[in-house]
Amino acid sequence: MGFMNKQVFRCGFSLLLAFGLAFGLTFGSIPPANALTQQQKLVSEVWRIVNRSYLDETFNHQNWTEVRQKAFKSPLGNDQEAYKVIQNMLKSLDDPFTRFLDPEQYRSLQVNTSGELTGVGLQIALNPQTGILEVITPIEGSPAEKAGLRPRDRILQIEGTSTANLTLDEAAARMRGQAGTVVTLLIGREGEADKEIILVRDRIELNPVVADVRLSPQGTPIGYIRLTQFNANAPMELAHAIHILKQKSAAAYILDLRNNPGGLLQAGIEVARQWLDEGTIVYTVNRQGIQGDFEAYGQALTEAPLVILVNQGTASASEILAGALQDNGRAQLVGETTFGKGLIQSLFELSDGSGLAVTIAKYETPNHRDINKLGIKPDIVIPQEPISGEQIGTAADGQYQAAMELLSKDLLVAGS
Questions:
Q1: Is 409 strand, coil or helix?
Q2: Alpha-carbon distance 63 to 67, whole Å?
Q3: Which is catalytic among the residues 44, 316, 318, 346?
Q4: Which of 73, 116, 272, 411 would be 281's cystine partner, CB 3.0–4.6 Å?
Q5: pTM of the shown model
Q6: DSSP letters along 177-188, please?
């Protein structure tokens, strides 16, 4: 997801939220501000935010002023007409991550990042190259995971409706619903025939951290931590897990970021600080080429050896964390090349209670790697056939076994 959350991003996001709200221009064909209807004011509000903050200063190689003038020629008799005009205006940017959320969608997104939701348990995205709706990852223990959905699965239809013309939030809204209700998806998977999957919606628990102590082949305690998403609870829960594992004499750690679709940028930064004493965590680059940076400071919670597990479902804030620890030499990465979402969206609350997600920057790893659409390549590449949730972190999990073997060797060398 990769959103900056205004409640938790204390190091600059609150400033980003102010962009565009005090920036306005008037043009001859547009009525003065005091003559605008509420719907026209909303369209103008969205236009100003994008005009001020959007990453691509060419606005997809078009005259953004003309886009505004065209929008005001459309009928804006009610909120729904205004919403449609806004969606068409944003669609011209050809950026699936810059999108409008009606009041219900905006409230739902706020709930999701807070740590709870009801639905099928899918993290989804529009593929920026094909525009096709894809699964980033199913949430552990969710109806989607139990049905066998995988990262990169294509969601072709929801309840018989093609997803080709749906926005990301429209698709998500169609899959959400009361626990116990049913939704049918048509799924496309490479090398297989399209198939219908019937899912029963349920309440999804979003405890982001699972942790326990495992024994290496030599009997050394290894702390295994699985981090499933970067919601508001993630930094606190991870710090607690490290504290407990240290009490249990963990000599090294495996941090499992597989199928972690990201979440709040600030949560990813705070988690990185728990593993680093110092060093750059991530650079952000806006459309003026201005670089911001986030640094580690203070003492890491542990200096013990660390291996991070990644795969195609490791995205956004997960990639920030993996890239930061890899470039700083703090961890080795094992698994598969990550998803490759290197764009940052800022979430703006609009005057009528709706919301606007805008791509305002891209991020680079400490070594200035731009990973958007490329992903992060692990130090040790280990492909893996799909396994069930119950098999994660077991003998059937080849990537986990490779991480355990790598740490065992590192501990033997350190002890010799």
A1: helix
A2: 7
A3: 316
A4: 272
A5: 0.70
A6: --TT-EEEEEEE
What DSSP element (H or E) covers 34? Answer: none
Each residue's pLDDT tens digit, 233-291: 899 999 999 999 999 999 999 999 998 988 888 999 999 999 999 999 999 999 988 88
Please provide the DSSP assignment of 350-393 as one string. Answer: -TTS-EEEEEEEEEE-TT--B-TTT----SEE-------GGGTT
Q: Are 350 and 103 in contact (CB under 8 A)?
A: no
Which pair of structure tokens corresponds to residue 182? 């049913």
Residue of 327, 354, 362, 397 with catalytic role: 327
Nearest to 305 by CA among 403, 206, 191: 403
8 A C-beta contact, residue 348 and residue 323: no
- Residue written as token pair 């905006």: 106
Residue 315: its pLDDT value, please?
A: 92
Question: What is the average pLDDT score of the chain?
Answer: 86
Vertex 235: Cα angle to 133 and 350 (nearest 5): 55
| Helix H or strand E segment including 17 | helix 13-18
Residues 302-347 pLDDT 10s: 999 999 999 999 999 999 999 999 999 999 999 999 999 889 888 8
Q: Which of 284, 258, 405, 403 lies closest to 339 in space, CA to CA?
A: 258
Structure tokens at 188: 């496309």
d(CA 40, CA 24): 14
341 is catalytic: yes
Sign of CA dihedral 268, 270, 276, 282: positive
Bridge partners of 126, per DSSP, are 133
